[in-house]
Amino acid sequence: MKNILIESNRLLLRRPETGDQTSLERVFCDAGMMRYLGEVWDADKVAEVIREWRDDWGVERRWSGVLIKRDTLQIIGTAGLTENTLTGEAGFELSWFILPEHQKQGFASEITDALLLFAFNDLNAERVVAETHPENPASNRVLEKLGFECLGERHHQYEDLPGFDVQVLWGLSRESWRKKTA
Predict the structure, then answer these.
(1) What distance in Å separates the CA atoms of residue 119 and residue 44, rounded to the nearest whole number?
(2) For residues 13-49, b (16+ Cβ closer than 10 Å) or e, as one string?
(3) What domains sit in the chain, N to C, each tagged with a CATH number?
(4) Cα-flanking dihedrals φ and ψ of residue 145, to 5°?
């Protein structure tokens, strides 16, 4: 099974490894990083998620992995694409986290664009969706810039993301994506 899913100009998205624990703790065990997703995780939860993501890599069209700068091979965050994971919303869901020192450099847009290309061209997806926190302007701007339509707020709770009970749903159809990229 291929360990690298995405290669873009500056980024790689690869399957998680046990050695990624410290880097992913910087993402999920930091209050600043988790401010839009609820509670901070502990090291055991991060280890559990690494195992889950590693074991699920490519299974049932799910890829959640480690985002790496190509030139330095430094971990700068996470990103993923999973099919039919949002209740009542058909399509592939995309996500990303970028560590603070790598934000505002276009990495979120670059990985999102690459994931869209993969979803629509390689997986023949009809629709891609994403959820953001209503007070997360940076993520909302990335999706808007790439052609996503804001579908309004949703209210539900995730067992593994306590405190993330209000989300903004975004959607992009293959047809709209093709028109935008033509």
Answers:
(1) 31
(2) bbbbeeebeebbbbbbbeeebbebbbeebeeeebbeb
(3) 4-181 (3.40.630.30)
(4) -60, -35
Q: In this structure, what token pair is assigned to residue 177? A: 């994506």
For residue 133, what are the contacts with CB-CB under 8 A and spacing of at least 6? 36, 37, 139, 164, 166, 167, 168
Residue in 175, 122, 100, 84 with CA at minimum distance from that of residue 7: 122
82-132 residue pLDDT tens? 997 777 788 999 999 999 999 999 999 999 999 999 999 999 999 999 988
φ/ψ (deg, to 5) at 86: -95, 120
Contact between residue 23 and residue 17 where contact means Cβ atoms under 8 Å apart? no
Q: List phi, psi (to 5°) of 103.
A: -75, 165
> Among residues 14, 25, 7, 33, which one has the least CA distance to residue 113?
7
pTM over 0.70: yes
